[in-house]
Write a structure and sequence with these properties.
The chain has about 500 residues and is an alpha+beta fold. It has 14 helices and 23 strands. The strands form five sheets. Strands 3-7-8-14-11-10-9-22-23-21-20 form an eleven-stranded mixed β-sheet, sandwiched between helices. Strand 12 and strand 13 form a beta hairpin. The longest helix has 26 residues.
């Protein structure tokens, strides 16, 4: 690690704290191209584990992976009017290739609905060809003006699912199902609790009938839109002539969905779990789950401790073959660095468990395990080390979710609130505010202009308040829905 200077604290400057962790934990670095980033091995290792878990979940629900071109004919984007209007300010356009001006400019994909549904139209003729369930792992480009590592960059990595169905009911069911897949992953693997629900019309995806979202609260009490799923209706099917022969012998346009998450999730993980000493990674996503730090003073002790460390690491990996996955173990063999300096570095990198191993520990047939999340330290017998480590990792995964959920709820307001108090809250600590909404876009826009807070979701029933407010937060008219308001990234 290049810099051992103390981190800026979250309380002093959350934004600076975030950037310092990403850089000093070696998750990513700035690219020579403004607004782009280089994802370093530790950051990519987290993304790889996210990919594997999500990919398994997608395949369990019947989706197959494919790949579509990076370049999209400009005319494709213009076919769906609302879609092009939504993405026009963010598009990057190629006008020349091979030293010549292109006959038709090419858009570098900001998302792939247009080219994918063009291809679907070639592949689908009959109801027997449906549903068509496709996922793509890819990169996209959106020309953002204000960028931040992982959270908003010109180019980022993501997956985008695209499906075609015979009925609107099937498409709506698919959009909701994939929202549930995202929520399950975010809570089970990321230990990041989310609220699910529908976006308001002002916040929905360009070209969709409905947009559903997973919204998470970061430690600065701002919301992060962590994943979205869209019921696209027949908008793209009509634009790209995606028709099929129905079972009754007629003809109809297919019903589509799309859904996606991106490397923004790595930023969400940092802001959900990091502390003033660095990163904290949930075990299921940690590139290294346990680091062994040998402690010795002489060459003789070094040889003895490293030999034991090698044996322990091999036993841990072999032991875990009986359980799902394998323990990811690293031995810090570096000479000339004091154990305390190693502890500092591995805390910064967020490795869930540190094992301290010295001659005295070996004499007692034990090692000392230190939790990264709580810093709790406890000796464990080498005879039961595999079981103890696996159990500790499970507890860390569970406890990190519990802590994050309790933090979110303690910074959520569900009791009736006046608009003046709402403004004060948004100017101060922020958080999630559950409040009534009349359904009017004018009220929604006025609140956004006044406070920078937006409707994150109209929450699903399980997240709704026991007694939702009867009147609109802004105008006082009867409420048509409960809305979750917050400032957001």
């Amino acid at each position: 690690m290049a810099d051992d200077k103390k981190l800026t604290t979250r309380a002093d400057d959350f934004s600076a704290w975030y950037n310092e962790i990403v850089l000093r934990a070696e998750l990513a670095d700035y690219s020579p191209v403004r607004g782009c980033m280089v994802i370093r091995p530790d950051g990519y290792g987290i993304w790889e584990r996210m990919q594997r878990a999500l990919d398994d979940k997608f395949k369990e629900t019947g989706h197959r992976n494919a790949y579509f071109p990076l370049f999209i004919p400009e005319s494709f984007l213009k076919k769906e009017a609302e879609h092009v209007e939504g993405f026009a300010p963010e598009t990057a356009v190629v006008t020349h290739g091979g030293g010549k001006k292109l006959e038709e400019p090419l858009i570098i994909r900001p998302t792939s609905e247009t080219i994918i549904y063009h291809m679907f139209a070639k592949w689908v003729q009959s109801y027997r060809d449906l549903p068509l369930l496709i996922n793509q792992w890819a990169n996209v480009v959106r020309w953002e003006m204000r960028t931040r590592l992982f959270l908003r960059t010109l180019e980022f990595l993501w997956q985008e699912g695209h499906t075609a169905h015979a009925t609107h009911g099937e498409a709506e069911e698919e959009a909701r199902r994939m929202l549930g897949v995202y929520r399950d992953f975010m809570e089970s693997h990321m230990a990041m609790p989310v609220i699910t629900g529908q976006k308001s019309n002002a916040e929905r995806f360009a070209g969709a009938l409905k947009t559903y979202s997973c919204e998470a609260m970061m430690q600065d009490n701002k919301a992060l839109q962590a994943g979205t799923s869209h019921d696209l209706g027949q908008n793209f099917s009509k634009a790209f002539d995606l028709k099929f022969q129905t079972e009754a012998g007629g003809e109809d346009f297919a019903w589509n969905t799309s859904w996606g998450v991106s490397t923004r999730l790595v930023g969400g993980l940092v802001m959900t779990h990091g502390d003033d000493s660095g990163l904290r990674i949930p075990p299921l996503l940690a590139p290294t789950e346990i680091v062994i730090v040998p402690i010795y003073r002489s060459d003789e002790e070094r040889s003895k401790v490293l030999e034991a460390a090698d044996r322990i690491a091999a036993n841990l990996k072999a032991w875990d073959r009986r359980a799902p996955g394998r323990l990811r173990v690293h031995i810090d063999r570096r000479d000339g660095i004091k154990p305390g300096a190693k502890y500092y570095e591995w805390e910064m990198r967020g490795v869930p468990v540190r094992m301290e191993l010295g001659p005295r520990d070996l004499d007692k047939n034990q090692a000392v395990l230190v939790r990264r999340d709580t810093r709790e330290k406890a000796p464990v017998s080498l005879n039961t080390l595999g079981e103890d480590v696996a159990d500790l990792l499970r507890r860390i995964q569970r406890d990190m979710l519990t802590v994050a959920r309790e933090r979110r709820e303690s910074n959520s307001t569900r009791t009736p609130i006046t608009y003046d108090n709402f403004r004060q809250l948004m100017e101060g600590p922020g958080g999630f505010v559950y409040a009534g909404w009349c359904g009017g876009e004018a009220c929604e826009q006025e609140i956004k202009d006044d406070t920078k807070a937006t409707i994150r979701v109209l929450p699903d029933e399980e997240f709704c308040s026991a007694e939702p407010a009867a009147t609109c937060l802004k105008c006082g008219r009867p409420s048509l829905a409960e809305a979750v308001w917050a400032k957001a990234y």
